[in-house]
Amino acid sequence: MSDEHEPALSLALQRSLGDRGYEKRKNAALEVEAIMKSLRESGDTAKVKRIIEMLARDFTASVNPNHRKGGLIGLAATTIGLTDGVADHLPELLPPVLHCFDDPEHRVRYYACEALYNITKAARGHILPFFNQIFSGLCKLFSDVDMDVKNGANLLDGVVKDVVTESPSFDVDNFVPLLHKYIRKSNPFIRQLLVGWISVLNSVPDINLLDWLPEFLEGLIEMLGDGNRNIRNDAHNALMTFLDAIKARADTAEDQDLGPMVDILVKECSASNKLIRHTALSWLREFIKIGRHQLRNYHAHMLGATLNCVSDPEPDIRQLATVTNQELLELVKSTGLDQVGGVLKVLKENLVSSDVATRIVSLKWIRMLLGGAANVNVHLDALLPVLLGALKDSSDDVVLLDLEVLAKISSAEAEFHRVLTSVVDLFGKEPRLLEGRGSVIIRRFCVMLDSKSIYLLLATVLQQHRDLEFVSLLIHTLNLILLTAHELQDLRDILKRSFQPNATAEVRNVFDQLFRCWSHNPVATLSLCFLAQAYDLAFELVKRFAKVDITVGFLMQADKLVQLLESPIFVPLRLQLLETDHPQYPSLVKALYGLLMLLPQSTAFRTLGSRLEVVGGLHQHLGYHNANSKKKKDSGSAGDFEDLLYVFDETQSVHSSAR
């Protein structure tokens, strides 16, 4: 029989290799080792190959578990016998061994692990072309349920690491995709293997794992949520090492692309695990410090993550988010903003957040953007409705900041009319808002903008409004603000000069415009005349009240006016009741008596009546008689106010028709 037809191993040796007894298999393996040494010395590589193929085909692939064990022991012995010559036969040796990692018998898996350990020790750096297959095998062994297999896997892992760290030719580019695949596994034993390898590879001077960090950063961060404390600690240490390396590279002004990692960190800022959220946000904060201009395309994403953490249930994360948000805001202020639309989209979404702090921070961002170079105005169509909606917010702090933002928008002449018109429309749709916050909203606008301009524009807008009942109600609110709010002192001063001899046409025009609008509310119109000291006009108005529908609302407003007449605002009017020689004195007294006649006998009636009784006593004491009433007064004839009275009459006529 020729050599090629002879069995690669004797039948007796084959029977011993497949025996159920461990000692027989072990002795057979020693024979195989001796044969391999002899073949190596003689250079008979063909027969070596035949023996390996036979062990793989007839033993490791057998249905008999004892044969599979024998085949693996035989392959291990082959490796030992070949020593340094094993490198030439790795393509034949490794596949059957790796295949047995999936064997249902735990002892077979253990022997496969032992065989690969021997192959690795013998072949050393020659196994590197097969590293990915070996690493995949390690992942299977580390997740094995059998402790002997796990222990064997740990030994194998150690020798493979030794080989990789001592070799200058490890192909990290080829390994990273495999790392990316397995880093997503949640098996704690695989995670332990992976974080160990990441740390080892990162410690090798010739391997620059930092460039590949985006490929496995997400999985490494998610290990912080593992139930195993050792895995969490190892992952944390690895992350800190990488972050230190990133900062060190930034100090040397070396270019590095942080963008791909930003997206990962943004996602992890919403993780359910608080340590993951805290770590991701900490990294974002460091990136803000070192990234500067290169992060311009990621501002929107980073802002979204930061705002999400501002409302985090964990106090330390909220505190970190507050600091991070401020640093990001300062960064955008200094470097500019390329993604105005993207940032505003994030801010709009967070303006309706359930958390007050998030809404406040969002408004501060919008305020900053409005004050900077960013072109926000082109996005106002989408932004303004959200800002108007924030006026209904349950938090006063949010409303006040929102008003500041709206005022900033209104400071642009092109947007002034638009914003105030929108506010008026909102009041019309939300009566409770007008009742509860109308005064605050108007007063804040008057503080931050020009009160005269605001009132004149509101007067113009209201005159065009179709809902007459709403117009009258809003004028009542505006009038109370005008008469009581210290923020409107400048406007009151202008109105008080309206009928003085030296009053300019511009000053008189302010009164005229307000009067035309105020005519929708008779009591408000009368109080406007009292404020402007237009007493002749006031008396003419009172006479026309006979034609006005005297409702409960009218009487309530008249009652309020009497209370206001007793306030500091109307001290000049009360003192003018002493000036019996003043041309408008008779009109002032008759206007007040007219108001008194309109009131039911209530507290207001008695208050005003008492005031007028004092004036009557003054008349008796001075022997006053109405001589001036027959004289032509500079501002006293009804003709002087014909246009205004016509407007009042027509306006009230419209109201009457609408009832």
TrEMBL record:
All copies of the Vacuolar protein 14 C-terminal Fig4-binding domain together span 432-615
UniProt keywords (A-Z) are: Membrane, Repeat
Highest taxon listed in the record's lineage: Eukaryota
Family statement drawn from the similarity comment of this UniProt entry: Belongs to the VAC14 family.
Any one GO BP annotation for this protein: phosphatidylinositol biosynthetic process
Chief subcellular location equals: membrane
Record Pfam families: Vac14_Fab1_bd, Vac14_Fig4_bd
* Stretches forming HEAT repeats: 93-128
Q: What is this protein called?
A: Vacuolar protein 14 C-terminal Fig4-binding domain-containing protein
Q: Does the keyword Repeat apply?
A: yes
Q: Mind naming one GO cellular-component term on file for this protein?
A: PAS complex
Q: Which PROSITE patterns match?
A: HEAT_REPEAT
What does the UniProt entry say about where the protein is found?
Endomembrane system
